[in-house]
Amino acid sequence: MNYLNNMQRRPRRNRKSEVVRSLVEETSVSVKDLILPLFLVSGTGKKVAVDSMPGIFRYSIDTMLSEIESCLKLGISSFDVFPAYPEELKDAKASESFNPETFYLKALREIKKQFPEVCLMSDVAMDPYSSDGHDGIVKDGKVLNDETLEVLGRMSLAQADAGVDILGPSDMMDGRVGYIRDLLDEHGFTDTSIMSYTAKYASAFYGPFRDALDSAPKFGDKKTYQMDYANSKEALIEADLDMEEGADFLMVKPALSYLDIIKLLSDNYPLPIAAYNVSGEYSMVKAAAERGWLDGERAMLEILTSIKRSGAKIILTYFAKEYAQLGR
Ligand code: PBG
């Protein structure tokens, strides 16, 4: 069949009005697809702006509870809480991560107590608690894999015990999903889910997040554990392992430069795919919009829709509240 020069076929007819366009629209984003990341600090009465992320704050538990309440009213019910720890509480073994009295675990408990209906996600990785700023235990300049699993395991049990619904191992150590799954099951946490950061790339787009948490690595980079952005095949290996090791969700991170990876995993795996629209992807849009260089709202809609179109069911995004406020 030759469609060229065939004016009986006029694709523009399906774009002729708002109503027709919405009839043919294939992809739409619902607030139910979104998880809002939130930054937690210790203390009370705090709501401190993150300079490199306009519109995003570090909350203490009391102000975070009000923020969650206002998000719930807008239809957002899933939250991923990340703690910012002061330097003096960090050590080489991330000991604070499994101290039951630590402000992060207490806050997670408090959130589940006040809002049992929310889906609460946490981050399993050593970096916010590590004096080396790495996601694993460092020895002689190397990040040790198997020694790190033990810490991740203790951290996971402590978070599950605090009532977290979905654990998010974001560390990229080998074997961690299976290790954590076994431990959870042994301790009776068979209902605690795991959203594995399956294909997490060593990315420049995490910059603002590391500012927000003061969690940048103290030396070197994360390239011996996070993936090389030149590669897609190893995403399949990671996904195979996560499937086998019992992950409930597969995540791709970042999202925008990795739409092909989202599509690859969504075409090949039956598990729900999540994409993390990371801090740098958010801040780029905000910075350009502040200068009047692009329309921030339209850019947000295009970005979130394209992430879904590529195959992600779930999007972790700092835009979640702003999107919900549009009431779409
Ligand atoms: C920690 C972690 C990071 C992000 C989520 N969990 C940073 C990193 O790996 O350095 C980044 C999120 C973002 O940029 O929004 N392991």
TrEMBL record:
<dbReference type="GO" id="GO:0004655">
    <property type="term" value="F:porphobilinogen synthase activity"/>
</dbReference>
<dbReference type="GO" id="GO:0008270">
    <property type="term" value="F:zinc ion binding"/>
</dbReference>
<feature type="active site" description="Schiff-base intermediate with substrate">
    <location>
        <position position="253"/>
    </location>
</feature>
<keyword id="KW-0350">Heme biosynthesis</keyword>
<dbReference type="InterPro" id="IPR013785">
    <property type="entry name" value="Aldolase_TIM"/>
</dbReference>
<keyword id="KW-0460">Magnesium</keyword>
<dbReference type="GO" id="GO:0005829">
    <property type="term" value="C:cytosol"/>
</dbReference>
<keyword id="KW-0627">Porphyrin biosynthesis</keyword>
<comment type="similarity">
    <text>Belongs to the ALAD family.</text>
</comment>
<dbReference type="InterPro" id="IPR001731">
    <property type="entry name" value="ALAD"/>
</dbReference>
<comment type="pathway">
    <text>Porphyrin-containing compound metabolism; protoporphyrin-IX biosynthesis; coproporphyrinogen-III from 5-aminolevulinate: step 1/4.</text>
</comment>
<feature type="binding site">
    <location>
        <position position="238"/>
    </location>
    <ligand>
        <name>Mg(2+)</name>
    </ligand>
</feature>
<protein>
    <recommendedName>
        <fullName>Delta-aminolevulinic acid dehydratase</fullName>
        <ecNumber>4.2.1.24</ecNumber>
    </recommendedName>
</protein>
<dbReference type="GO" id="GO:0006782">
    <property type="term" value="P:protoporphyrinogen IX biosynthetic process"/>
</dbReference>
<keyword id="KW-0479">Metal-binding</keyword>
<feature type="active site" description="Schiff-base intermediate with substrate">
    <location>
        <position position="200"/>
    </location>
</feature>
<dbReference type="InterPro" id="IPR030656">
    <property type="entry name" value="ALAD_AS"/>
</dbReference>
<comment type="subunit">
    <text>Homooctamer.</text>
</comment>
<dbReference type="Pfam" id="PF00490">
    <property type="entry name" value="ALAD"/>
</dbReference>
<keyword id="KW-0456">Lyase</keyword>
